[in-house]
Specification:
The protein is mostly helical and 222 residues long. The protein has helices spanning 11-23, 45-56, 61-73, 79-90, 94-110, 121-169, 184-219. It has 7 helices and no strands. It is rod-shaped, with a radius of gyration of 54 Å. The termini are far apart. The relative contact order is 0.07.
């Protein structure tokens, strides 16, 4: 049966690709090889996505995945071939894109240590700057919240002082009436009792004086 061939296996494609590369100019960084097993490739995906979106004016997963696939295809990919393959999408921006991407890959390879894949220094610096920016924003937000809380406390304290001052200056209210209400008879009864008591006391005194006078007259025979 019929069996197709991949682009890489198609001799015609390889010939046309070679002709294109012969006509193009590449930066000197392309002469340096990159071993992809030393590069933390997934860290580069956000950078690739951001650059592609900036060039195309929209996010294009096809182009992003194409670039990542080209980098994963071989342990030592040829940057010239990758540039030729993405030129159809990025057009005149393909050269600048690949030059910057390859410099990041070389930096990541330099930062490789056994057991830990390398990350480009530029991306590490950007990550550190992001962390510093986030920490600064958190500190500023916490400071602002503390200032607002202090202002709220000061406002409450001022209101309490005003309430205390107005209460001290105001006259005391009259006492409340008793449960049964005020009764005029109570006042009359208390006043009458005093009067009769006073009158009764005066009558007793008069009678006492009268009795003493009678006793004196009898004694002197008057």
């Amino acid at each position: 049966g019929f069996r197709g061939v991949s682009v890489d296996q198609d001799v015609r494609f390889k010939n046309s690709q070679s002709k294109l590369m012969a006509k193009m100019k590449f930066p000197p960084e392309f002469a340096q090889k990159v071993e992809m097993n030393k590069v933390h490739l997934e860290v580069l995906r956000p950078w690739v996505a951001k650059k592609v979106t900036g060039y195309l004016g929209m996010e294009d997963d096809i182009v992003i995945n194409l670039v990542m696939a080209e980098l994963e295809k071989e342990n030592e990919p040829d940057p010239r071939k990758i540039q030729v393959n993405v030129t159809g999408f990025l057009e005149r921006n393909a050269g600048a894109f690949m030059a910057e991407l390859w410099r990041l890959l070389l930096s990541a390879q330099e930062n490789y240590v056994p057991g830990q894949k390398g990350i480009p220094s530029q991306l590490l610096k950007e990550k550190e700057d992001d962390i510093k920016r986030i920490n600064q924003e958190l500190q500023d937000r916490a400071k602002k919240i503390a200032e607002e809380q202090q202002k709220q406390k000061d406002r409450i304290a001022d209101k309490v002082k005003e309430a205390i001052s107005s209460t001290a200056a105001a006259p005391l209210p009259p006492p409340p009436p008793p449960p049964g209400g005020w009764d005029d008879r109570d006042s009359r009864r208390s006043g009458g009792g005093s009067g009769s008591g006073g009158g009764g006391g005066g009558g007793s005194i008069d009678r006492g004086i009268g009795g003493c006078s009678g006793f004196i007259r009898r004694r002197h025979g008057r």
